Amino acid sequence: MSLPDSELPRTEDEWRVRLSPDEFRVLREHGTEPAWTGEYVETKTPGMYRCRACGAELYPSDTKFDSHCGWPSFDDAIPGAIREIEDNSLGMARTEIRCARCDSHLGHVFRGEHFTPKDTRHCVNSLSIRLDPSTA
Ligand SMILES: [Zn+2]
Question: Which residues form the MsrB domain (predicted)?
């Protein structure tokens, strides 16, 4: 499922041919899919959510919760899988999250909202992830 390191694209042009135009816009150009349109907003299927660009494991399905914000939301991630970057675009102080392996954009992380005991909400574009359903 996961791309071998030797096959990881090195340039944006290499990514462009691998991804659909919508995936490219979100993953490589930091786009955001419209709320409530993503395929995983309400998904409860058990499994592992992987980076849609490189296949790295990001979020086990048991970290997903209903935030009612219109995007898939997770309160934890695989240790080391996510990189956080300060994002002051659009006049807001937010924290962007990217795949630590391939540097693709996932969404933003918010803390202090009290949704879950971990008090963390990874707000992720469905276009940035792919569910690998568990067969167990
Ligand atoms: Zn990745």
Answer: 12-134
Domain CATH for 53: 2.170.150.20
Domain contains 90: yes
Number of domains in the chain: 1
Output the CA 88–ligand 1 centroid distance in Å. 23
For residue 54, indicate whether it is catalytic: no
Tell me the whole-structure pTM to 2 decimals. Answer: 0.94
Contact between 105 and 25 under an 8 Å Cβ cutoff? The reply is no
Please tell me which residue in 51, 54, 102, 123 is annotated as part of the active site: 123
Residue 4 lies in a domain: no
Say if residues 20 and 107 touch (Cβ distance below 8 Å).
no
Distance of CA 8 from the midpoint of ligand 1 (Å): 9
d(CA 2, CA 125): 19
pLDDT digits (tens, 9 = 90+) for 7-43: 999 999 999 999 999 999 999 999 999 999 999 999 9
